[in-house]
Amino acid sequence: MKLIQTTDAEGAVLCHDITRIIKGVSKDAVFRKGHIVTKEDIPVLLSAGKDQLYVWEKEEGMLHENDAAEILCALCRGSHMERSQAKEGKIELTASCDGLLKVDNQGLKAVNGFGQMMIASRHGNFAVKKGDRLAGTRIIPLMIEEERMRQAKECALRATGGRPILELKPFVHKKAGIITTGNEVFYGRIQDTFTPVIREKMREFGTEIIDHVTWNDDDKKVTASILDMVKKGADIVVCTGGMSVDPDDKTPLAIKNTGARVVSYGAPVLPGAMFLLAYLEVKEKGTSRTAAVMGLPGCVMYARRTIFDLILPRVMADDEVTPEELAALGQGGLCLDCPVCTFPNCGFGKGV
User: In which element (H, E) is residue 22 found?
Assistant: First the structure.
């Protein structure tokens, strides 16, 4: 650092906070360490009693924290994201639409493993609203080696395959069908309290319910209804009940017999172990699309949060779930059924 006259400070980088005291009004930093002095700042600095300043000298091969933060921001920022201005080596990203946040963990680790720089994000595979904070970047020192930033950038891009570390997938308008199963409901022995839960959860995503049928424990009827709903344009078909191992529980067989590709029957999540997820390829007029078919266990009807709450946002964003991703939900897959539910601001569903 070097000492200069304040009147000559335009473009210089402050080495420390500049505090201004106004008796009875305030005592605070008027400029922070790392601030780049503008022409308009000079009268303010003089009024704060700063006729001289300690500033950083430009060194070959070194980057100012804000310039380095721009590199981290570029590595992180995907589509549908707004960014803040760089300040003290920090840049924040926020969502510009409702959607599903995806985080490339390998790219995140690549950057954070270099030291003197960091990226902190919210957990991936969860829904976010427009305006939600997604991530923040920070350069730790005031100045950082340009070579270190170059290496971090190369390492991150190698880990992500050249893609941004963060991706925001907008939610897509979906059409859905609901198939309620069970002799007890079909024959009017009990009231259907399952379907209203599904309708409410789908309403949060603006889903259009195009069909709803109720069947007894007849797998052939359920299979036919799944295929019929998809033919009518359903992007999602949800089958409620019939997911256990009792003789009358035939929903898994019904889904399998549609020809759908079953991702998994069973998930390491409580509540929701007997969940089934499948994808059905649909060919229409020379084009093809994929419909998600889900078999929901009874816990979805009465538990506040279940496996359905973890998978539904991904389905709504056309983010296909793999068997490996379902298996990874084991760590964090136990809902603690807290007296006051704070989901998604809790550990439920936040696996490795």
Answer: strand 18-22
In the prediction, which pLDDT does 87 show?
Answer: 84
Report, as an integer, the average pLDDT of 90-108: 98
Say which CATH topology domain 2-55 has.
Molybdopterin biosynthesis moea protein, domain 2 (3.90.105)
Select from 333, 222, 331, 224 the least CA-distant residue to 270: 333
Structural domain boundaries in the chain: 2-55, 62-170, 175-330
Residues ≥6 apart with Cβ < 8 Å to 61: 145, 146, 147
Q: Which two tokens stand for residue 349?
A: 């569903």
pLDDT beyond 60 at 25: no
Percent of the chain with pLDDT over 90: 77
Q: Does the structural domain 62-170 have CATH classification 3.90.1150?
A: yes
Residue 3: burial class (beta carbons within 10 Å; 0-12, 13-18, 19+):
exposed
Q: CA 97 to CA 75: how far, in whole Å?
A: 20
195 and 180 Cβ atoms separated by less than 8 Å: yes
Judging by DSSP bridges, how do beta strands 236-240 and 175-181 pair with one another?
parallel
Lowest mean pLDDT of 130-134, 328-332, 347-351, name the range. 347-351
pLDDT tier, 93 (very low <50, low <70, confident <90, very high otherwise): very high
Give pLDDT tens digits for 215-250.
Answer: 999 999 999 999 999 999 999 999 998 888 776 679
Going by C-alpha positions, the residue among 273, 292, 306 that lies closest to residue 194 is: 306
pTM of the full structure:
0.86
The amino acid sitting at 105 is N
CATH of region 175-330, choose from 1.10.10.10, 1.10.760.10, 3.40.710.10, 3.40.980.10: 3.40.980.10
